[in-house]
Amino acid sequence: MTKRRFFLLFPLFPLCALTFLCWGPFFAPVWSEEPGPLEQQEAMAAEYLFRLARMSGDEPEERERLYLGLTEDCPGTEAAQEAHWALSNLYLDGFDDPKEDKAREILEQFLKRYPSSQWVDHVESRLAWLRSEH
Fold it and tell me: Is 30 a member of any domain?
């Protein structure tokens, strides 16, 4: 009886996939350019941090993607400020070829977004080091 049900439903699988491919984009969430309220940003930041905590250390591209998402989707959070710093560390130490230009860009973005942050001195020191070394 189970085999019969499977064979009866089997022809529907391609139809379901086709329906999703055609109509799926209309049901996708709409992301605005503006970040949401701080409570929403905090919840999203917690999700990003959870994903980052579950990753292994040998996935720098995925880690970069998550950190960048955190900085863009949750800019009002403390986690976003920390993600800028973590990204600079990743760019300098996480890839086979260090990406000093990207590290410099993310740190300059930090200074523009968070000029009164407690981390400004550390960011400026690292930027000065990057400029003097390279």
Answer: no
pTM, two decimals, is 0.72
Domain residues for the domain of 121 are: 46-134
User: Which structure tokens are listed for 70?
Assistant: 């955190």
- Residue indicated by tokens 């690292």: 126
Domain count, the chain: 1
Go through the chain and tell me how many residues it has: 134
Q: What is the secondary structure of 24-87 as a DSSP string?
A: HHHHSPPPPSS---HHHHHHHHHHHHHHHHTS-TT-HHHHHHHHHHHHHH-TTSHHHHHHHHHH
74 closest CA partner among 47, 53, 52, 44: 44
Lowest model confidence (mean pLDDT) among 30-34, 59-63, 67-71, 92-96: 30-34
The helix/strand/coil state of 97 is coil
pLDDT reading at 21 higher than 80: no
In a domain, 126, yes or no: yes
